[in-house]
Amino acid sequence: MNINFPEGFLWGGAVAANQCEGAYLEDGKGLSVQDVLPKGIHGVRTEEPTEDNMKLVGIDFYHRYKEDIKLFAEMGFKVFRTSIAWSRIFPNGDENEPNEKGLKFYDDLFDECHKYGIEPLVTISHYETPLELAKRYDGWRSRKLIGYFENYVRVIFERYKDKVKYWLTFNEINSVIHAPFASGGILTPKEKLTLSDLYQAAHHELVASALAVKIGHELMPKAKIGCMILGITTYPLTPNPDDVIATMIKDRDTLFFADVHARGKYPRYMNRYFKQHDIHINMEPEDEEILKNTVDFISFSYYSSNCETVNPDLAEKTGGNLSRGYKNPYIKASEWGWPIDPKGLRFTLNKFYDRYDLPLFIVENGLGAVDELVDDGKGSKAVIDDYRIDYLRSHLLEVAEAIEDGVELMGYTSWGCIDVVSASTSELKKRYGYIYVDRNDDGSGTLNRYKKKSFDWYKEVIATNGNSLLNS
Ligand code: BG6
């Protein structure tokens, strides 16, 4: 096979502020929804932060980022994806003036990246709505959030316009339908929300996202601004035409969000869906115009695929990232029950590219696994994570296939390039990194960093622009 990653391909890794920074109240930061989700997205919200919330300390990236970026540079990263914690800049979300200390932190962080020639790729909102916006307005259910988001976005674009070229608006924007509190800062319990409520919140986020694209293009003509989609790849469980149609419909849960971002308007198929489910969305006259501000590229996360069927007796349900389907009998799963399907990544890349004809960016992909820290025989410690190398290699080989297929791909940032606290379950034992962080779920550990075997492996992949994938 041919390996032809384009010249200038943006190799790197990804994290999110709330999963790595810690320092949850330092330098004027306010609380975000993550600070009251001790057991992760799938857990229950608390009234106040509790000590068992692993994200409050994270991996202490806030204080150790220099050491970490140096390690990323050693691997040869060209790009580093992280998010700005909105509540560091606007502690309650709705102030008029930003918090200078929060702004300064990201100035220093981006400068540190540039010191090594690493481009920051910044997610504006990664499951980090300020908690006060959740309490006062029920988060993105309220149209007011668009205005507060606009203030935030103007401040960070003005401040970082010479430091950040690549931006993503909302992390996995389609997840607001599945995880309304974590993704949309919506305090009302999910079981009390109607589909109208959820799609209204999604509409507000879509308008806010398009507004960010508009403002970004005005303030930073050279910047590239993308959307970020939770890439849920669904196959029909059988060739039964009913399964095929059911899959087409399920797929639209995801595609709807990419369609609006790429085409600048609501797709016609949603009319039928809204009618069938009695969904009514309040739109302001200006929304149609704002939505016309389309993205420069489509980014997405990809971990696994699943199946859809009209006959639930045929298969068990799968585990997986936020949205789930039925088990594919041809596919094995990770320790956390997430199906592992490298070819699904090639399929997804082709599907997005065929549909939008826009550059793509894989901004999350990786294997969450339990790692064992062992003596490396040289006086230090290491993790022999061949299973992670297998996962990443098999996926990257399919990425190479997609590039051969003609897909235009800007880059690849594997998820959790350094171990971070997991989003869904708030564990640290679910590790994704090339770098091991000595911190355990009971809070113990030195927070020291150790290179895993995958560290050198990825370094070689980057150094050879993917060609070493053929050897290892
Ligand atoms: C994505 C999120 O859904 O999946 C990340 O954008 C998250 O924040 C990643 O960490 C992996 O999920 P988890 O639950 O294993 O951390």
Automatic annotation (TrEMBL):
Family: Belongs to the glycosyl hydrolase 1 family.
Phylogenetic classification of the source organism: Bacteria, Bacillati, Bacillota, Clostridia, Eubacteriales
SUPFAM superfamilies attached to this UniProt entry: (Trans)glycosidases (SSF51445)
Residues annotated as catalytic: 364 (nucleophile)
Key words, A-Z: Glycosidase, Hydrolase
Gene Ontology terms: cellular component: cytosol
Transmembrane regions: none
Top EC category: hydrolase
Name of the featured protein: 6-phospho-beta-glucosidase AbgA
GO biological process: carbohydrate catabolic process
EC number, as in UniProt: 3.2.1.86
One function term, GO molecular function aspect: 6-phospho-beta-glucosidase activity
